[in-house]
Amino acid sequence: MLNDPLFIKTQNDLREWRANRKSPHVHIPESIKENIKKLNLQYSKTMLRSRLDLGGSTLNF
């Protein structure tokens, strides 16, 4: 999973989003959510939650 290009892109996008958000209450952008949904087809939600750094946000899908 850690070598999956989509996982790497999603993790990098999450890091950039977290670094640039103005408030901890800003929602994860739809483009990142779509990538997470694609990853969920291959990996379990539990694994994604433990591997992706969501910055305190939750996965709701």
Structure description:
This protein is mainly α. It has a domain at 5-19 and 28-51. It is built from 3 helices and no strands. It has helices spanning 5-20, 30-42, 45-51. It is globular, with a radius of gyration of 11 Å. It starts with a helix and ends in a 10-residue tail after the last helix.
In short:
The chain is an all-alpha fold. The chain has three helices and no strands.
Proportion of residues in extended strands: under 5%
Order of helices and strands: HHH
- Structural class label: mainly alpha
Beta strand count: 0
| Low-confidence region ranges | none
Terminal CA distance: 20 Å
Shape designation: globular
Mean pLDDT: 85
Main beta sheet: none
How would you describe the oligomerization state of the chains in this entry?
single chain
Number of helices: 3
Percent helix among the residues? 55-70%
Integer-rounded radius of gyration: 11 Å
Features of this protein?
globular, about 60 residues, mainly alpha
SSE layout:
Blueprint: H1 5-20, H2 30-42, H3 45-51
